Amino acid sequence: MRALLKSTRIKKYLLLKNISQNNFAHRIGITSGYMSQLMSGYRYPSPELRQKMMEYLKINEFNDIYKIVE
Questions:
Q1: Whole-structure pTM value
Q2: What domain range is 15 assigned to?
């Protein structure tokens, strides 16, 4: 299963938390370059990274920030 980030939703959550995309990347243990690739849809996050993102942003619903693609 591949999950694509809904970048507009991620940006909204980051804005609400008053945190930059680069700072968010650092806090979840990835590089800002990799975060940029995720946000642009060039790369897909691993299940572990998806969980870290949801935990940090305090999101309970997978579909809030991810879209399943084939």
A1: 0.91
A2: 2-69
